[in-house]
Amino acid sequence: MKKILITGGEGLIGSSCIEFFIDKGWSVISVDNNMRGKIFGEEGSIENNVKISKKENLEMVRGDIRNKELMEEVIKKVDAIIHCAAQPSHPRSLEIPLEDFDINAYGTLLLLETVRKNNPKIPFVFLSTNKVYGDMPNKYEYKINKRRYDNSQVDSFDESMSIDKCGHTPFGVSKTAADLYCQEYAKNFGLTTCIFRCGCLTGKNSKAVEMHGYLPYIIKCAMTEKKYTIFGGGYRVRDQLHGSDVAGAAFEFIKNPKSDEEGNFGIVYNLGGSIKNSISIYETIDAIQEKTGKMLDFIEGKERESDHIWWITNTDKFKKDYPNWVITKDLDYIFDEIIEHHNDELQLNIEIKNKKYFKQ
């Protein structure tokens, strides 16, 4: 039986990867120290986030990826790695820039060096972010179309976008450093790395807070009648990708690692929900009301530093290399899953209406 290490295994994407790979017959080692709970408080804690039946194929390690001895022991005995552990919030990074760098950049570098010294042939998938592009997307032209912004120049963003001459926040910088280290360790040391620059990733296990996890958090606010702050206006657009579809993409690479045009690993892919899973904040508010009968109470807040006005991911490069990968969870599924999860978690009793609200 093959064995995979998933760092940050109790978070949103990590827990999705655990479930996905166990279903595929793999054994999983998860390393997580619940840093999310320390950064965001009890509401953001991922304690007891992993709830699967096949526990015999899962080893849960409560530990820090910066613990060299621990990671050396684990990495020696696995056949692949998905690195999800991170400080994930760009507004929070402005408050804790040193800790943000230590977790995201230094933590990733330590993992890469440990792999290089102890198990250099295994695939290494890194969950990067579209924040490596900073606020470069905001330099495009936008127009209001009903309840959202439309980009007047492109219909999505691919990997050719520059990462220079724009604002990133410390989070964007630390993830960019980690992203580039993953590329360099492939080019200079021969590691088999893959970098996913992700848009909005979502699902029921996000443990969303105001500073991170917009879609589950806004749904939770509406269901619990908590006032929500829209930072920078409600026409802004994000595409949504379910955690299980991220796990599916990682699985495709691990099965059959691809190199870039020059034959090097360290390949970069933009990964997100694309146009069909894109939605604005105002459209989200409308959808929540249609599905739950709850009208969100919100106020307008100022623009967040280096936040994207509009992001829709171009996944053509990944789909060309891995044509078997498709987005399996649409917006209706994503909304309904999150609503049902909050119903159970908060002991609410809100009936889901309009299960086919979104036009395909």
Could you give the order of the helices and strands? EHEHEHEHHEEEHEEHEEHEEHEEHH
Give the CATH topology.
Answer: Rossmann fold
Measured as a percent range, the helix fraction is 25-40%
Q: Report on the biggest sheet.
A: 7 strands, parallel
Mean pLDDT: 95
Low-confidence stretches: none
CATH architecture: 3-Layer(aba) Sandwich
Task: Give me the count of strands.
Answer: 15
List the domain count as a whole number: 1
Please give the count of helices.
11
CATH class equals Alpha Beta
Q: Any idea what the CATH superfamily is called?
A: NAD(P)-binding Rossmann-like Domain
State the secondary-structure class.
Answer: alpha/beta
Distance linking N and C termini: 39 Å
What does this structure look like?
This protein has 360 residues and is an alpha/beta fold. The protein has 11 helices and 15 strands. The strands form 4 sheets. Strands 3-2-1-4-5-8-12 form a 7-stranded parallel β-sheet, sandwiched between helices. Strands 9, 11, 13 and 15 form a 4-stranded mixed β-sheet that branches. A two-stranded antiparallel ribbon has the order 6-7. Helix 1 links the parallel strand 1 and strand 2. The longest helix is centred in the N-terminal third of the chain and has 22 residues, at 97-118. The mean pLDDT is 95.
List the topology elements.
Elements: E1 3-7, H1 12-23, E2 27-32, H2 35-40, E3 58-62, H3 68-75, E4 80-83, H4 90-93, H5 97-118, E5 123-129, E6 142-145, E7 148-151, H6 169-189, E8 192-198, E9 200-202, H7 214-224, E10 228-231, E11 237-242, H8 243-255, E12 267-271, E13 278-280, H9 281-292, E14 298-301, E15 310-311, H10 316-321, H11 331-345
Parallel strand pairs: 1-2, 1-4, 2-3, 4-5, 5-8, 8-12, 9-11, 10-14, 11-15
Antiparallel strand pairs: 6-7, 11-13
